[in-house]
Amino acid sequence: MEGIYAIWQRDLLKFFRDKARLFGSFTMPILFLLIFGGGLSGTMESMMGSMAGAGEGFNYVEFVFPGIVAMTLLMTSIFSSLSIIEDKDFGYMKEILVSPISRVSIAVGKMLGAATVATIQGIILFLLIPLLGLSYSIVSLLQVLPFMFLFAAALSGLGLLIASLIRSTQGFQMIVQVLVMPMIFLSGALFPINNMPAWMDIIVKLNPVTYGVDVMKKIMIDVDSLSPQVQNAMGLNLDVFGRPVTMIEEILFIAGFAALLVLLATFSFRRANA
């Protein structure tokens, strides 16, 4: 536990000391929020409102904001794993490997550090809620925090696995960029994922971000107050093989995904650094 805590603390201190990283990580989420939440909100509200029969009362920004937060968690969690490759280059990783700390502790410490950093950045985005005129309840924001950390931990496990297999920062960034954008656009973060082609729907259902985004929307948005037509228009009725997926099942899937990736990353990390 001391080894896990030391690695977690080091990654957290590096994050707060790197002001450029703290500022730069918000650039893309805020850009998407301005484009989709501002520039395209009228068009999307009209289209989705017509689909739901909700008229002008349909708030697209309220729909897209949880997706923007999920996007922040995704990008921060995965890119935080880049520090593993940097630690290899500077020799810090060799110092850890010769210490009594187990490979599992190293992987868990890195995962928790990235998840904590990502969760903090997601919480900072909550400061935009009053500026956007949104009406999420304090209770729903508090309820979503534990899942945000779990979701970030699962995504950081993915980044950890990639970083354990790649030996250069350029290769890591290239692979991550190829993965991140499809995971964002095929997750329901920015627009509903209903009525997609069959081959694309398969990718959507295999995408772990899909379930994370769906859980965050169900927690943050008062789903019970929405009509079934509005829920369908917003893509909140997610199903797999024609069977509706409950929020508990989605949370369990994310937890299992996180545990699996930590095990795979630990095994890969042990082989790559033996």
From TrEMBL:
- The reply on keyword Iron is no
Provide this UniProt record's keywords sorted from A to Z: Cell membrane, Membrane, Transmembrane, Transmembrane helix, Transport
Q: Name one GO molecular function term.
A: ABC-type transporter activity
Q: Where are the transmembrane segments?
A: 20-43, 63-85, 106-132, 138-162, 174-193, 251-269
Can you tell which superkingdom this protein's organism belongs to? Bacteria
Q: Which InterPro entries match?
A: ABC2_TM, ABC2_TM_bact-type, ABC_2_transport, Nod_factor_ABC_transporter
Q: What is its main location?
A: membrane
Q: Which residues form the ABC transmembrane type-2 domain?
A: 20-272
- Cellular localisation: Cell membrane; Membrane
Topology with regard to the membrane? Multi-pass membrane protein
A Gene Ontology cellular component where this protein is annotated is: ATP-binding cassette (ABC) transporter complex
PANTHER family the UniProt entry points to: NODULATION PROTEIN J
Q: Give the protein family.
A: Belongs to the ABC-2 integral membrane protein family.
| Protein name in UniProt | Transport permease protein
